[in-house]
Description:
The chain has a single domain, classed as Growth Hormone, Chain: A, CATH 1.20.1250. The chain has helices spanning 3-34, 38-66, 68-83, 91-111, 114-118, 122-141, 147-160, 164-172, 180-207, 218-242. It is built from ten helices and no strands. It is globular and about 55 Å long. Helices cover 78% and strands 0% of the residues. By secondary structure, it is mainly alpha-helical.
Amino acid sequence: MGGIPLTVVVAVTALSLFYRSCLGVIAPELTRDLGLTPEDLGRANGAFFLSMAAMQIPVGLLFDRYGPRRVVASLTVLAVVAAALHGMDGPSRGNVLLAMAAAQLLGILAFGPLDRIFDTRKWIIVPGGLCTVGLLGALALVPGLPVTAAVALLILFTGVTSYAVVIVAHGRSLFPDHLLGRGVTTVNIAQVVGLTVLPLITGPIVGAFPAPGAASPEIAYRAAFGAIALLLAAGLAIYGAKARDARPSSTQER
């Protein structure tokens, strides 16, 4: 892949990550201006990812019919036009999320070739998941973290969770080449459905703790991190026990 196509792919990936995380930037403003509760924000986030999950099906079919290049280019143009219509505040939160997005991009570049280097996918995913559970556990169990330490853990967290690209590769290996679009769509739907459910779970958890002021107390977010860690640990245990490895050397992928 040449320099220009790679630059475009990186830019599109960054735009995708921005759309997934932008609610985190504007959450305080949404809460204040619209009078939303943590539960409402959880439902809004869930609805966003539910819409994303629904779009996976037609996009997968379009991939198989017209090819990823044309489809991604067309949809990216629409996304850029829509983004040009909006603006937002919250520069400090935005800078943190920008650092987190950069960490995820770097993580994708780091995790991407590991399956070929070590000739395994499962045993890249499992350590990545364990590190993720550990970071969530630190955020949940350590009280009174300084802001810099919490931000550092969140940035590291987003970098580590980039092992998700290997999950997609693992799922893609289960489908023949002529069903590539629908195969990747199936894996993406599973991931996005999880992203839909998590805000619906964590919103009520945060809302269960009385807020003394405009912001929810620290313990509320620690409880939410703990719940996510437990759910991920349960899923990882099932994956580790049941999933068969898909070694790149033994597949017929092109």
